[in-house]
Amino acid sequence: MKIYCELLERMEDLSEEAIKKDCPHCSLASQAYLYSLGETSSFRIVCDAHPLKEGHILVIPKAHLSCIGEYEPGLLQEFKELYDKVSTFVQVQYGSVATFEHGVFGQTVFHSHIHFLPFTGSPDDIVPEGAEKRTPLADLSELQELYKGQGGYLFFSIGKDMWTVDTDLAEPRFFRDRFASAIGHPERGSWKEMHQNAETMEIVEKENLSVQENWITA
How many helices (H) and strands (E) does the chain have? Predict the structure, then answer.
């Protein structure tokens, strides 16, 4: 509960206007960095302050970039190594792993942040509109071509399989809402509503402290 009170103090204005003006992923004083796991020369690894479930981790570049598609080659290589490390941690500790990034479309915080979380479902659970709405990816570097060509993308993975999603489906919190529903926590789709719920955030505090402990001992 103590950390929840600190979280409220760190960010009171959650409006889209405030987030655009003062990026919460650029400031180490923001609630985004409340549950730190570590960092590399170019990235920070944190527990999502409003996780969909225990084991929900974010990788955030230190530079203010919109998405993976905007990473320069050296940064992308560093990210790929970190992507494998975090994916392995979630897989080993929690038994499964999925990832997603809104790639501009569907973002509510406009600074690249890649989500990692335990998930045992199928791609149909996330995109029930049909396989024709999903395009398989062979490598994360393909996101850069998509970003250059169409200005953004919707990216997700389950295990080692990766896809992009037809951007005609894009809407705010696209993946958060869909993953939240698929794992049985639809009430966690809106992180802003979670933030105001003291009971939920008390549970979240325990979950994220557990992730931190697991990270240290892994």
Answer: 8, 8
Helix (H, G, I), strand (E, B) or coil at 162: strand
**Does residue 184 fall inside a structural domain?**
yes
d(CA 195, CA 124): 29
Q: What integer pLDDT is reported at residue 27 of this predicted model? A: 77
Q: Name the domain count of the chain.
A: 1
User: Per residue in 179-205, pLDDT tens?
Assistant: 999 999 999 999 989 988 999 999 999
Going by pLDDT thresholds of 50, 70 and 90, the confidence category of residue 2 is low
Cα dihedral 125/188/113/41 (nearest 10): -120
Q: What is the CATH number of the domain that holds 190?
A: 3.30.428.10
Structural domain boundaries, residue 190: 2-212
